[in-house]
Design a protein that fits this description.
The chain is an alpha/beta fold. It has one domain: Nucleotidyltransferase, domain 5 (2-Layer Sandwich), CATH 3.30.420. It has helices at 47-61, 89-98, 114-128, 136-149, 163-174, and strands spanning 2-14, 21-31, 37-42, 64-65, 67-70, 77-79, 86-87, 101-102, 175-176. The protein has a five-stranded mixed beta sheet with strand order 3-2-1-5-8, sandwiched between helices. Strands 4-9 form a two-stranded antiparallel sheet. Strand 1 and strand 2 (21-31) form a beta hairpin. The longest helix has 15 residues, at 47-61.
Length: 181
């Protein structure tokens, strides 16, 4: 099963550690089949932030997806190319260890990952806007609860269940355990 991932800017938050106002980014994971989503919040868009988000997503989804479809995230893609993209060394090491393939979207091709593109705005409008958080950790706990109970913009009517319900039914066949990652 495939999962689309993308970073999106949410807004500003005062960092409890040093009192500075900092940008908060959301690394959003959207399962292609079910549209079940997970959101990881970060002050940065580094390889460490992407890997931390992946680790948390594997726990949330109950396993590792076979294929990740990222936007051309700098921590993941060293050189974008439609036929032969070059991945960063750290990402190759992590993907090999975790056991998934990476199939990046083409540059400036939002149609390659449509499920996650609209989700960035959805998360900003329906989770972030109007909330006041005192720390990134508090916001992360809130977004994890929100993801677990979220009413998605496109319920799976033809499947007679929510994206989370579809995902739970398909998880055992589509993901492999996160193990000791």
């Amino acid at each position: 099963m495939e999962c689309q991932i993308d970073f999106g800017y949410l807004g500003m938050l005062t960092d409890a550690a040093d009192g500075r106002r900092r940008k908060v980014h959301a690394l959003i994971f959207t399962a292609v089949y079910s549209r079940h989503m997970f959101v990881w919040l970060s002050y940065s868009q580094t390889l460490a932030a992407v890997i931390a988000g992946c680790q948390a997503a594997w726990g949330f989804f109950g396993g590792v997806f076979a294929v990740l479809i990222p936007d051309n995230l700098k921590p993941v893609i060293a050189a974008a190319d439609a036929v032969n993209p070059q991945f960063t060394r750290g990402w190759l090491d992590y993907a090999g260890h975790a056991g998934f393939l990476t199939d990046p979207a083409r540059v400036r091709s939002p149609k390659d990952k449509p499920r996650v593109e609209r989700t960035v705005q959805y998360v900003r409008r329906n989770f972030w806007d109007g909330e006041t958080f005192t720390s990134l950790e508090q916001a992360q706990q809130a977004v994890m609860t929100w993801c677990a109970h979220c009413r998605y913009p496109h319920p799976r009517h033809h499947l007679r269940t929510s994206p989370g319900g579809v995902h739970r039914r398909r998880t055992t066949d589509a993901t492999h355990g996160a193990g000791d990652l």
